[in-house]
Amino acid sequence: MSDIGVATADRSPGLEPVEASVLQLDQMTQPNVAVFEKAAASAEGLNHWALLLMQAVSALQLPIRLS
Fold it and tell me: Tens of pLDDT along 48-66?
């Protein structure tokens, strides 16, 4: 049982850089998530306006000329 305690104590200092790296990745990822959510909302709004524009344009009947 004491071997487990020694092995754990030996590995703990090695985990600190890993934990720091994971924390840093998380801090970098969170702002990206917010940007993505804003971009997705903007794209949804643009899609809505594009559909409205298509409906408005489809109501126009232009004569077709065959030359």
Answer: 999 999 999 888 877 777 7
Which tokens in the block code for residue 60?
A: 């126009």
pTM over 0.85: no
**Per-residue H/E/C for 1-62:** CHHHHHHHHHHHHHHHHHHHHHHHHHHHHHHHHHHHHHHHHHHHHHHHHHHHHHHHHHCCCC
The number of beta carbons lying within 10 Å of the beta carbon of residue 9 is 9
**∠ CA(17), CA(34), CA(30), 5° rounding?**
10
Enter the tokens of residue 64.
Answer: 């077709």
